[in-house]
Design brief:
Length: 66
């Protein structure tokens, strides 16, 4: 565990990991929201999906620059 923490602390790698995690969570969340809409009689909306993913992308960038 100490080796992992040391490796992540080199060159701010933990910030890149946070960005990747935000993107992954954003895509999963967008998919889950659209699936919920479709399961309840609606239809899949690619614009909503894309906006959710873009929001996660922007949030990840803000996190990585902070």
């Amino acid at each position: 565990m100490k080796k992992l923490i040391k490796w992540l602390s080199v060159s701010n790698r933990w910030k890149h990991l946070g960005w990747f995690t935000a993107m992954y969570a954003g895509v999963l969340t967008a998919g889950a929201l659209e699936y919920k809409d479709r399961a309840h009689g609606g239809k899949w909306d690619w614009i909503d999906f894309a906006l959710t993913v873009v929001g996660a992308f922007v949030g990840g960038l803000i996190f990585s620059w902070a």
